[in-house]
Design a protein that fits this description.
There is one protein chain. By secondary structure, the chain is α/β, with parallel strands linked by helices. The chain contains five helices and five strands. The protein has helices spanning about 30-35, 50-55, 70-90, 95-105, 105-120; strands at about 15-20, 25-30, 40, 60-65, 120. The longest helix is centred in the middle third of the chain and has 20 residues, at about 70-90.
């Protein structure tokens, strides 16, 4: 067991937050982006914003994403759900959810653009 009383935060300069809010984003040192050769992502679900940012800032990185739950059928369902919810969120002025739904409408082309050339998606379950 880890003794949490001896844990101390490390002071690190140039920290940046990459990716969307919630589970898609992480805080990392800025310079690590340019020193990385391979990026492994486990459980990306429908949010690969961290990986996209990483690739856009370091196009030499090899990105391997593992998620057995992400497939074409789940993307279609997510897109249909997003299309149906857009009018509701427009009427209720819910900007946060509306933004997420608009992202969901374009998730299928985004998947094929990103994972077609820039990264590799492996449909394996990693324990």
């Amino acid at each position: 067991m880890i003794n949490t009383k001896i844990l101390r935060p490390i002071n690190w300069k140039n920290l940046i937050r990459i990716g969307k809010d919630n589970d898609g984003g992480y805080v990392i040192p800025y310079e690590i982006i340019y020193k990385t050769d391979v990026l492994l992502s486990y459980g990306i679900n429908k949010d690969w914003s961290f990986e996209k940012y990483f690739y856009n800032n370091n196009s030499n990185v090899n990105i391997h994403c593992y998620d057995h739950t992400l497939n074409f059928f789940s993307l279609i369902l997510y897109t249909i759900k997003s299309i149906l919810l857009v009018p509701i969120y427009c009427i209720t002025f819910d900007r946060k959810r509306l933004k997420r739904c608009i992202y969901g409408i374009f998730i299928i082309p985004d998947y094929f653009i990103f994972f077609g050339k820039k990264a590799k998606h492996f449909k394996y379950r990693i324990w």
